[in-house]
Amino acid sequence: MVVSLLLALPAAAGLWLVTAGRATPPRLARPLAAASALGTAVLAVLVLVTGSQVDRAWLPELGLRWSFAADGISAPLLLLTAGIGLVVTAHAWVELPPGGSPAGYLGCLLLVETGALATFTARDAVLFLVAFEVVLVPMWVLVGRYGDRRDPRARADAAGRFVLYTAAGSSTLLVGILLLVVSTGTADLRELADGAGAALGPGRQLAVALLLVLGLAVKVPVLPLHTWLPPAHTTAPTAGSVLLAAVLLKMGTYGLVRLPLATVPDGFGRLAPVLAVAGAVGVVWGGLVCLVERDLKRLVAYSSVAHMGFVVLALASGSETGVQAALLANVAHGLVAALLFVLVGGLKQRWGSVDLAVRRPALRETSPRLGLALVVGLAASLGLPGLATFWGELLALYSAWAPAGDRPRGVFVAAAVLAAVGAALAAAYALRVAGLVWAGDRPAADAGTGTDAVGVERWVLVTLAGAVVVLGVAPMLVLSSTADAVAGLGGLR
Amino acid sequence: MSPWLLVAVPALASLVGVVVRREDRWAGAVAVLAGGLTLLLAGIAWVLEPGSTAGHVLDLPVGGLDLPLATATDPARLAVATVVALVALAVQAYSTWYLGADDRYGQFAATVSLFTAAMLLVVVSADLVLTLVGWEVMGWCSYLLIGHWSRRPEARRAALKAFLVTRVADIGFVLGVVGFVAGAGTSGLSGVVGAWREPTGCLQEQLAAGAPLPEALGACDAPDGRARTVLLVLLVVGVLGKSAQVPFQDWLPDAMEGPTPASALIHAATMVAAGTVVLAGLHPLLADSPTARWVLGVAVSVSMLLAAVLAFAQSDLKRMLAWSTVSQVGVMLSAVAAAPPADGPDAGLLHLWSHALFKSLLFLALGWAAVAAGGTAAVRMRGSASATPVLRAALLVGFLSLAGVPLVVGGVSKEHVLAAAYDGAVAGDGPGVLVLVALVLTSAATAAYATRGYLLLTAHRRDRPRAGTVTPAAPAVLWALTGASVLGGLVVLTGSFALHQVSLLWLVLTVLVVGVGVALALVGGLDRDPAEVLARRLVPYADRGLGVDGLYRRVVARPVLRLARVVAYVDTEVVDGYVRGTALATRAAGWLGSRLHRGERSSTAVGLVVGGALLLGAVGVLGWS
């Protein structure tokens, strides 16, 4: 019951805001959106506390069920999504992007949140796909309509590319899911995970795994399927970028755990070496691009590619530790990316652009609060212990060094070494940004006084930075939640 | 008492310090009080808990991996913790004067507290992952401290360089930790040492049987002899980076751009010395692996001698102390590298203890003298300490200790290091002989530059130099550290460090070697700068650290940046090119379709439908079969 409410509340509020309530002035729309996000967050906590679930026949002719519930694997992501929902709706007080009605914008944010919550709670493979797809449309509107005003063509290109690229991925995913469902005769994710692909022959397992992995890899994104991400991130309004990085990419990795890894473990195992290498190369690749990228927002986007590389590497290792590491790194990246995008969005609002080649006053001197938040974000980005990313990425290296027994160990050790080198690159690009933006490597001639973060922006930054520290000091918050659920996944060794 | 307290107090102090950073008075009070409390706790623990104790365990299982996150204390660790806390307190108290007028004093004090917490974590950690946590946090704090005066471009560059050089070396450290933990299935130090103590010869057998390396790796996941050697070497590489040993040495002299109290902290008791603590913990494994000992032994032998020579020829006295740190940390690590299994690594830890005392004393005294003189160049600082008794006393004791004169703290520890190296040389399976030779030569060179430093700083000047205005904190700190440097050698009587008896022979030898060094420095008389007399031509090269900075740029930085540009180009033009190509092809197909569709002949449409049906059918058949 509660889980239905969890989905219904943001869906209803979002739908009303984009349709009948389009003309609602910001004065009313903002509190409404924030209140629904708050209500959703409370409901998310309630769902986890009560263990609420719903399971009804949906399309009996096709054997599809309307089935939602949360378990240990989805719990951290559910909380992350609800929290980020709060952050983005609160951020509307800082920035309301032009391009359409403010109410429509807020409605789109809530609809994306709804889709993500549904994705993380769906217990039916087809339902998962539907929820996965629902997110695309409001996100497309956010990028295409409310995105960066300066270049309409780039905006249209980024939005079109995002929607077509990820829709192509989803079509592959759809074929994979249909093949899986037809082969096993059930669409229930728990039954599928319990069966662990035993009903499928090795060839069929591989085919299903390939289709599922390909489809989900676009969303994660895994190198070389990542080129939709930087333009989408760069163009999207701040809240859109935050949702993209903190929620949408997580749907990809979550899908990898739920679908190929759990349902066709043997087929996934055969693809794992490729995935591991792609992940490790992604870490290095993203790090290298960040060393020379000029646009700060694009740079953060590429750093996402690098961080998701660690997640993919850990998943590919196929061990329990690996999946735990992946889920932890996933949540950690969500927080860190959200922090960085809020910051960069704020800088873009102040400076007009975030071109690193332009001389600007040192943030440390002009806006100490923004500076401190930036330092926390960058330190987390380079994997500093005590901040969120450290544990996930260290455990990812560990799981690659000691992968599941059926994985080719040589390949995985090589991938671990590559990823470790990539981690050093992360230090290089994080300090490059720190030097240019924070410490003042390229100072402006007249160091004007910038406006520091105040009000909502300040509290959003404090909350996100605080969460990054808390998760870094106490990784067990996530690990203890995922432990039992991961141990229960079939096909892990 | 839980060792966690030692970490928690300074960590909390840094947290509170960040909150009250705008109020200098509060920030200073929090930092100094927390420093005092930490010292008190460490001292009490050291005195009252004679045996070894395992600390509280925060068990964190992650799948098949066990992360006990355990701490442990034994007398040697607690002695080191005490000296760390002492130096940290001295630095905090001294900073209230030195950075009293700085507009970012609050941040500085909070960072120093965090730095202390991280070092204490490394000291009491009995868990490789915890060690890594402290290790990396120290690196980050060093970035913040060295770059404290970030309005100066040199400080920004030095901070960046320090962090990047050590982080690159840390690739080895991280992989070493991961590998050891993976082999043992636990990150607890005792578990790791236990699992890797008796390695198998699996890899060797597999390779001998003709299996390629990847397959052999797959077959051998148990602790293996060869893998152990590789992992130890990787760890040693990380240690060499943090400890500024060859080939990573060049970040340390540049780090002199940081405020002097930060230098005192980084050099004396924390970051650079941490490697000794880590390797001491792994000594049972290290002592059993000649390859790793040789790698370490060669690197530190080269480092200590090279750095001592470069220190002698520096035209900047603060940089002289920096190079002296490189050299002295080499001495610490040499004891770990050379000591045979029976001796244990405690001679190195003893030298850590004594170096912490005299090096912090020297840095803080020099910092005061530099403020009085208005710079750190040798020419400018000439005689700057001559008029202030506390500075003269501090510098005398500090330089005597540095030179290794018997009975003061530096002399006591150096004799033990020499004895350990001699034992290693006699035992014969490690780099003992090499290390022993390097140690003797280094001792002479050290005595020479210590003499030079003292002569220059206390030289007689006709115009009476000003002492500068100081708050009482500065002289109090210096007197305390001077006393500790004189009496600190008595620590060997407490039995905290497991040391062998040192015969009188070593005392005589040390006196002899030091005498040679001092005599060398005095060749040109008391009034001339010995570097000008003996090494005039070396000075410009020594000031640039032999141009290693350029080497780093040419060998690492530029190729990486070039690669990055290539990758960025490939990313937008090639990888994305396929995506754009797909879009283009789709559009072309659409155009073609619409053209064909508009054609008059209905056969075209029929053809299209039939073709499409055939295609679908083929896909269906292939997919189903």
TrEMBL record, chain A:
Keyword annotations from UniProtKB, A to Z: Membrane, Oxidoreductase, Transmembrane, Transmembrane helix
Tell me which InterPro entries the record gives: NADH_Q_OxRdtase_chainM/4, NADH_UbQ_OxRdtase, ND/Mrp_TM
Q: What broad class of enzyme is this?
A: oxidoreductase
Q: What is its main location?
A: membrane
What topology in the membrane does the UniProt record assign? Multi-pass membrane protein
TM segment ranges: 33-52, 73-94, 125-143, 163-186, 206-229, 241-259, 271-292, 299-319, 325-347, 368-391, 411-438, 459-479
Biological process according to GO: ATP synthesis coupled electron transport; electron transport coupled proton transport
Q: Which NCBIfam families does the record match to this protein?
A: NDH_I_M
The name under which this protein is listed is NADH-quinone oxidoreductase subunit M
Q: Which organism is it from?
A: Phycicoccus endophyticus
UniProtKB/TrEMBL annotation, chain B:
Q: Where are the transmembrane segments?
A: 27-48, 78-97, 117-146, 158-182, 264-286, 292-313, 320-340, 360-379, 391-413, 433-455, 476-498, 504-526, 605-624
Q: Which residue spans adopt a coiled-coil conformation according to this UniProt entry?
A: none
Please report the name of this protein according to its UniProt entry: NADH-quinone oxidoreductase subunit L
Q: Where is it chiefly localized? A: membrane
Question: Topology with regard to the membrane?
Answer: Multi-pass membrane protein
Ranges for domain NADH:quinone oxidoreductase/Mrp antiporter transmembrane: 125-423
Organism (species):
Phycicoccus endophyticus
Has the keyword Ribonucleoprotein been applied to this entry?
no
- What are the annotated GO cellular component locations? endomembrane system; membrane
Q: Which domain of life is it from?
A: Bacteria
Q: Name one GO molecular function term.
A: NADH dehydrogenase (ubiquinone) activity
